[in-house]
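hi! just following up on the protien thing from before. the input was this:
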Amino acid sequence: PDLQRSAGLPASALGDITIAVQLGFIAGTLVFAWLAIADRYSPRIIFFLSTLAGAAANAATLASGGEFLPLLAARFATGFFLAGMYPVGMKIASGWYDRDLGLALGRLVGALVLGTAFPHLIRGLGGDLPWQGVILSVSAVSIAGGLAMLFLVPDGPQLRAGAKFDPAAFATIFRSADFRASAFGYFGHMWELYAFYAFLPVLLAARLGSDGATVSMWSFAAIATGFLGCMVGGYLSRGIGSARVAYMQLSASGLCCLVSPLAFLAPLPVFLAFLLFWGVVVAGDSPQFSTLNARFAPPRLVGSALTIANCIGFSITIVSIALLDWLIETAGPQYVFVMLVPGPVLGLAALRRLAAKPA
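and the predicted 3d structure came back as:
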């Protein structure tokens, strides 16, 4: 909101800016997957270089001067280099864990969820901190994370390296029926996740009657609770399996989409508690879907499989974000989240066969 006001951008710019990041991520994942970069080179080095490039691209937002096209270009570049962090980070984790991969990715994705919430925390605590300060703080944290990965996390013993470029990788990966089931479940999850993140502050502002620090702090809280969903889901996966954990959390988040208009009308404490719970379950299934995708992918193409799944998943987010962006001005923020229900429903249908199997 601060950037929009500073640059004099229309309300619809929120959707455009968010979609620019998603498009950049999609372009990055296509390049990384097509060249099998995560399978040919040390993922730690890729992760580190991507954090540097991503931090620079993020900081370049300041150089846009509020001009819309340069701003979109900077956000696109930021999304592009995120493709060298998110799926590559999961590749790194898969190199350290085999049996307890669900728990490991629960911790990893939980940390990523906290990172997603972090700018809202900076804005909430910063009071009058300008949006430029938020951008630079996020870039600094990105560089610190890259350095930590480079110097503190060696390549794991389960890491499969040395895969060559394979133009048929896309078809090879989707030959497995189990991989298709987990991937399509993940796609349903993605229809909901980033649209929820993008328009959560708008929903809060409509209910609280402001868009200042209070909205930022509650946005942080609702997104950050996803860390708990990821962690608890990771521990549960050791007993009942990743598929069942993902199925339960996706069911709960789909129900939240359905009843969100009623929750908006509830007393404020109930509404805020509802958002905190939604934040738990909307993110908590993500590491379990990644675990299933890694488990059912061809062993030497795990990195490419995760990258391709992320690419398709983020492509889906563009549609759901654009849909809500289009509807929100006419229907109001309290009603548009119902349009996210089809994602969880279709995801549950795809995941059902895996959830029915013994853990």
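The chain has a mean pLDDT of 86.
DSSP finds 18 helices and no strands in the chain.
cheers
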